[in-house]
């Protein structure tokens, strides 16, 4: 059984609009940075911006701090998959709720965020893989989840007529799809700003501290303070959690992607594979984005990922095995983004177990883009004390409290958002 956080219900139940109180400690609160905020969010990716947006919709004053620019890391460099297919069972309720929000982004953002409901398909290349798919679908159905559907070869061909003849079936989820990450992140940012959210880019959080009544966040330009603090800083979030005595075994990985030259349309759904690492989608302009959680390297202190071409070639071989007609298709560019991976492969979401009015959302293990809208909404509900049928207990930071595992992050003297 996962450790539950005894303070999980100790969240803010309401905010009173007030001027920022004077600060009597050793950190001066500069006029330029005086937040006037009820909540400070550290991290300007989709999770931070979604949380800020949903809080602002409830009338909460929010300031977002971003070390570089919004969407710079995991939220902006991922493959754009909007996927409930293949999720860890603990994530499924939240992922399904998030998918509902994706389909209704027009109501939330005033635009669709670039979302395309193309469906997602995980291919089985032999009978053993098809049996694995069948077991997965049966297990989910037994738990009451019916979004994943087993399909045969003929049904695969109806969806993707050009796929290689050795493919025997797969798992289909019709409500999944994809989006262009920077489009989506920008849409969340603009919607949040229209509701009064203040976004401070090039403002890394160096140190956090709790006073009797407020959180104080030290930056290079001064100190901000607010009643509630939310940490959504991706691969750098665990360092902030460690400052308040909540170490999390997180390690950064540089997930690699490539985008091809344009080719005539041949594949509408997003594709994955059962027995091989693959994430594959063709965008409307004809380019194909290819990934699959292949790991490059990370320069953590320099805050960027690096491509390992020999490893990336594995994805290219998988694609040409499935689509032989792409053998001569050129690659336009490649990149690696920094993602945060937890020791148990599911994220940290929810209230601190040690400190009041502190919340987390990080460690999505390369699959957090889809969950951004729903996680932001659910975390805002918890902060506001609003009820929800979706429990955050499986994601509590308290599950690591008994672990003696030390952080697997490179040492650094600065804490960044």
TrEMBL record:
<feature type="domain" description="FAD dependent oxidoreductase">
    <location>
        <begin position="38"/>
        <end position="381"/>
    </location>
</feature>
<dbReference type="InterPro" id="IPR006076">
    <property type="entry name" value="FAD-dep_OxRdtase"/>
</dbReference>
<dbReference type="GO" id="GO:0016491">
    <property type="term" value="F:oxidoreductase activity"/>
</dbReference>
<dbReference type="GO" id="GO:0005737">
    <property type="term" value="C:cytoplasm"/>
</dbReference>
<dbReference type="Pfam" id="PF01266">
    <property type="entry name" value="DAO"/>
</dbReference>
<feature type="compositionally biased region" description="Polar residues">
    <location>
        <begin position="7"/>
        <end position="27"/>
    </location>
</feature>
<dbReference type="InterPro" id="IPR036188">
    <property type="entry name" value="FAD/NAD-bd_sf"/>
</dbReference>
<feature type="region of interest" description="Disordered">
    <location>
        <begin position="1"/>
        <end position="28"/>
    </location>
</feature>
<keyword id="KW-0560">Oxidoreductase</keyword>
<protein>
    <submittedName>
        <fullName>FAD-binding oxidoreductase</fullName>
    </submittedName>
</protein>
């Amino acid at each position: 059984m996962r450790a539950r956080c005894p303070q999980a219900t100790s969240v803010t139940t309401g905010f009173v609009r007030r001027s920022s109180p004077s600060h009597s400690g050793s950190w001066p609160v500069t006029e330029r940075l005086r937040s006037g905020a009820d909540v400070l969010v550290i991290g300007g990716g989709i999770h931070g911006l979604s949380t800020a947006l949903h809080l602002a919709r409830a009338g909460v004053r929010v300031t977002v701090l971003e070390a570089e620019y919004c969407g710079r890391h995991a939220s902006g460099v991922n493959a754009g998959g909007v996927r409930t297919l293949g999720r860890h069972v603990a994530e499924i309720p939240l992922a399904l709720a998030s998918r509902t929000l994706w389909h209704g982004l027009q109501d939330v953002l005033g635009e669709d965020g670039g979302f395309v409901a193309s469906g997602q398909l995980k291919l089985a290349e032999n009978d053993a893989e098809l049996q694995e798919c069948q077991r997965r679908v049966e297990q989910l159905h037994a738990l009451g989840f019916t979004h994943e559907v087993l399909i045969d070869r003929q049904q695969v061909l109806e969806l993707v007529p050009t796929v290689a003849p050795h493919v025997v079936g797969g798992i289909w989820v019709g409500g999944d799809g994809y989006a262009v990450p920077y489009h989506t992140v920008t849409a969340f940012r603009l919607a949040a700003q229209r509701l009064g959210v203040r976004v401070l880019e090039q403002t890394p959080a160096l140190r956090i501290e709790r006073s009797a009544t407020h959180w104080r966040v030290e930056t290079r330009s001064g100190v901000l303070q607010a009643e509630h603090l939310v940490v959504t800083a991706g691969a750098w979030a665990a360092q902030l959690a460690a400052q308040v005595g909540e170490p999390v075994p997180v390690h950064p990985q540089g997930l690699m992607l490539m985008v091809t030259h344009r080719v005539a349309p041949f594949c509408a759904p997003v594709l994955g594979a059962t027995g091989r690492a693959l994430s594959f989608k063709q965008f409307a302009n004809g380019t194909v984005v290819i990934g699959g959680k292949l790991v490059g390297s990370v320069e953590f202190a320099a805050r960027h990922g690096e491509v390992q071409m020999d490893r990336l070639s594995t994805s290219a071989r998988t694609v040409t095995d499935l689509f032989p007609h792409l053998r001569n298709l050129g690659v336009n560019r490649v990149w690696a983004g920094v993602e945060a991976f937890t020791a148990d492969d599911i994220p940290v979401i929810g209230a601190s177990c040690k400190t009041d009015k502190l919340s987390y959302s990080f460690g999505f293990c390369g699959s957090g883009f889809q969950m951004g809208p729903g996680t932001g909404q659910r975390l805002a509900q918890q902060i506001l004390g609003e009820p929800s049928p979706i429990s955050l207990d499986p994601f509590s930071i308290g599950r690591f409290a008994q672990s003696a595992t030390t952080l697997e992050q490179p040492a650094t003297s600065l804490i960044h958002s």
